[in-house]
User: Which sequence fits this backbone?
């Protein structure tokens, strides 16, 4: 028994390692031009040292109704680090500016408003909207985006802002919900609080990035392929690690600590493989918003919201109507009773893991599409997922949905009154308050909290 | 491959500042996890509160370093009370989630531009430990301990730190043998049984959380003093997991476990780093496998793998007793 599971874990772990090690090889053979470019960059002679950390951008303002954007020439952007001025970039006739930085680190770019031509203003009315802070990694080239256009705050009252942020909140909440339902289902069926769930989210986003940017697939097939691989990976982890541990009778607390170890391993494996910088997908990275009544939303966000809702309804239907869904609920309700009425509990749990992997992958890809892909995006997300799941009631799929929406809305609406940089704090404070008042969560059952 | 250098790194890290702040913090975590069975996944929050307590007192209020220590201890106590109130009645996994979340709240607040005048924002605060180094009894020199060298400042910090670790370990050993400690262990083994004997379980858990939290604050003092700086991202969630790994490596619910575990953790981490870097630069490790930048990530992958394997095959660590672990729930 023991030997068998050891063998199995070894097989699973070594296949995992192979996957990780094969990565760089694939990456190098697949895109020789990029690899060559990187190599030549690295091989630059020290004598002809050119700054390899660069920022660039375009300044354009919207033209008349139906006309093309107009480039803004002669605007100046001052670059500073630690309060010290590094230099000034000026836009050319195409509105383009570029600036070579002295090295990696944290910088601040200030667009000098009085160098803008008559009539050109920033979209945002915020006091420091003309200052962007950014961090730059070694050899990174990154764009800086100053949005020019007619100022929107005159027409945008508190109510409009509220509606806009609510839409953002629903979008974010749906993304959290998709990832969190898997976390909650896993807890419901196995009792495991899986700290490695955030890594499934990052893994999904990075897989899609790999298929999209490195292998050059279009984003949509890349997403579908990543979905399959992410789900399979999650299932494999159950087969190779969690099932043997369950069979061995490892306690839940011990499994929780194992999941922490797995989370560290996977997270740093992604840092090893993907690197520390954030990268966008090749398609749909930047989209202009369209106006829908009082709110403005990018088409990709509309599609993401629609897909999320469809997926969540589908998950609900699976849980309510299908045989496997009913079996999942039965196992979550009472594992022994489910087993004795002829349900193959291990198979059901495997299915839960595969489903959780697929949902987490989808959530990660949507997150990466909204922002960018980073190696540790899932961990930040994990804490929000925990907040959502506990808020709704740990172990209940619908509770996870409700709780995540609350978290998403709260995170976004927090920025209405309080500094946006502390917005995650809002979700966490709500979590702690709910635990004080109703520890079983909104839809949870009293008995679960022990 | 220069194995002498790797051995030097191993010894240096085993005695160095990282190991000593880990040891002190791990002793606190040992009281939480090892003796009381509290799954505190946000221990780094206590270190952060202690460190910032000192730094803010000195740089913002202009008081002395020693006053800062008092403030840091008080801050750790308040933080523990706030943390314990909503969570100690809940199950272990809830506590784990809330503690990690609370530590992140603190980090976000210390980072926030809004409070930059007090906290220094994401750049943090510097230069608040001059009082401590001003009473350094070691004259300026380089002190050689076998093959490794420390400056007089390091010597002073390490002397204080390791003395503190030893005192705390002995203190905890005495506490664990006392009637108070036996109640804690009873709570760890079976909370309901302890409750049915008329013990105020919530109160005991809270005392353990506060006491261990203050030890975490001490760990924060050592870390902040060694760097003469606090910066919010030093206090990120993975550090708690590393302290956990060190504790489990040495053996939870033992006197010497957290100390040896911390020494070994940093020694192994540092030696692996030296080994991999030499391998990379000498070409023994091929460049398609890893480069100098990736070495850092690979070390922490190994930590994660190590934590998994430890927990699966030897949860009691080096010195522990398997029956003494709060795992059977």
Assistant:
């Amino acid at each position: 028994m023991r030997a068998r599971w050891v063998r199995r874990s070894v097989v699973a772990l070594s296949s995992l390692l192979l996957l990780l090690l094969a990565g760089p090889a694939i990456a190098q053979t697949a895109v020789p031009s990029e690899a060559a470019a990187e190599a030549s960059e690295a091989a630059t002679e020290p004598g002809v040292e050119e700054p390899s950390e660069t920022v660039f951008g375009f300044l354009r303002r919207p033209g008349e109704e139906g006309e093309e954007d107009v480039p803004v020439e002669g605007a100046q952007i001052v670059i500073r680090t630690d309060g010290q001025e590094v230099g000034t970039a000026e836009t050319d006739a195409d509105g383009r500016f570029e600036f070579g930085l002295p090295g990696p680190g944290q910088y601040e770019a200030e667009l000098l408003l009085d160098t803008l031509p008559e009539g050109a203003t920033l979209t945002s009315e915020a006091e420091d909207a003309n200052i962007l802070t950014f961090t730059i990694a070694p050899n990174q080239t990154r764009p800086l985006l100053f949005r020019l256009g007619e100022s929107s705050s005159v027409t945008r009252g508190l109510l409009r802002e509220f509606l806009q942020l609510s839409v953002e909140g629903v979008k974010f909440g749906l993304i959290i919900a998709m990832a969190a339902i898997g976390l909650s289902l896993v807890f419901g069926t196995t009792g495991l609080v899986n700290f490695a769930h955030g890594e499934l989210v990052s893994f999904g986003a990075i897989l899609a990035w790999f298929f999209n940017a490195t292998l050059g697939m279009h984003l949509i097939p890349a997403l579908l392929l990543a979905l399959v691989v992410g789900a399979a990976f999650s299932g494999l982890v159950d087969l190779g690690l969690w099932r043997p541990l369950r069979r061995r009778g490892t306690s839940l607390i011990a499994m929780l600590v194992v999941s922490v170890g797995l989370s560290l391993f996977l997270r740093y494996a992604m840092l090893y493989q993907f690197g520390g910088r954030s990268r966008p997908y090749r398609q749909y990275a930047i989209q202009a918003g369209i106006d829908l009544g009082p709110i403005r939303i990018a088409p990709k966000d509309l599609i993401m919201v629609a897909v999320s809702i469809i997926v969540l309804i589908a998950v609900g239907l699976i849980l309510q109507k299908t045989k496997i869904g009913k079996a999942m609920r039965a196992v979550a309700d009472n594992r022994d009773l489910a087993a004795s009425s002829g349900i193959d509990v291990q198979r059901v749990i495997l299915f839960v893991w595969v489903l959780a992997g697929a949902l987490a992958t989808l959530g990660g890809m949507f997150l990466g599409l909204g922002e960018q892909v980073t190696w540790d995006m899932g961990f930040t997300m994990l804490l929000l997922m925990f907040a959502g799941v506990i808020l709704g009631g740990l172990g209940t799929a619908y509770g996870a949905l409700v709780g995540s929406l609350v978290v998403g809305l709260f995170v976004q609406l927090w920025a209405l009154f309080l500094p946006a940089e502390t917005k995650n704090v809002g979700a966490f404070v709500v979590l702690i308050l709910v635990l004080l008042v109703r520890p079983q969560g909104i839809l949870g059952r009293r008995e679960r909290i022990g | 491959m220069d194995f002498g250098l790797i051995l030097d790194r191993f010894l240096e890290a085993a005695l160095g500042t990282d190991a000593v702040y880990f040891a002190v913090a791990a002793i606190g975590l040992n009281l939480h996890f090892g003796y009381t069975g509290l799954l505190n996944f946000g221990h780094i929050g206590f270190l952060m509160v202690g460190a910032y307590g000192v730094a803010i007192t000195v740089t913002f209020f202009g008081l002395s370093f020693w006053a800062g220590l008092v403030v840091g201890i008080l801050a750790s106590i308040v933080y523990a009370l706030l943390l314990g109130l909503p969570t100690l009645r809940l199950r272990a996994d809830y506590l784990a989630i809330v503690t990690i979340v609370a530590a992140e709240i603190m980090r976000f607040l210390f980072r926030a531009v809004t409070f930059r005048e007090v906290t220094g924002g994401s750049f943090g605060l510097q230069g608040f430990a001059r009082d401590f180094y001003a009473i350094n009894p070691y004259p300026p020199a380089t002190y050689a301990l076998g093959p490794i060298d420390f400056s007089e400042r390091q010597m002073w910090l390490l002397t204080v730190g390791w003395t503190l670790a030893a005192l705390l370990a002995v203190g905890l050993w005495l506490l664990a043998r006392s009637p108070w400690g036996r109640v804690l262990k009873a709570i760890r083994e079976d909370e309901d049984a302890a409750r049915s004997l008329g013990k105020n379980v919530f109160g005991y858990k809270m005392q353990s959380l506060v006491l261990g939290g203050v030890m975490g604050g001490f760990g924060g003092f050592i870390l902040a003093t060694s760097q003469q700086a606090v910066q919010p991202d030093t206090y990120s969630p993975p550090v708690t997991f590393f302290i956990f790994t060190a504790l489990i490596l040495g053996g939870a619910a033992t006197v010497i476990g957290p100390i040896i575990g911390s020494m070994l953790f940093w020694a192994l981490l540092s030696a692996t780093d030296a080994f991999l870097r030499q391998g990379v630069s000498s070409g023994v490790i091929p460049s398609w496998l890893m480069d100098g930048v990736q070495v850092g990530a690979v070390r922490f992958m190994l930590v994660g793998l190590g934590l998994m394997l430890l927990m699966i095959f030897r949860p009691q660590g080096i010195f522990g007793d398997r029956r003494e672990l709060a795992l059977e729930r």
The first helix of chain A runs from residue 2 to 30. The first strand of chain A starts at residue 53 and ends at 58.
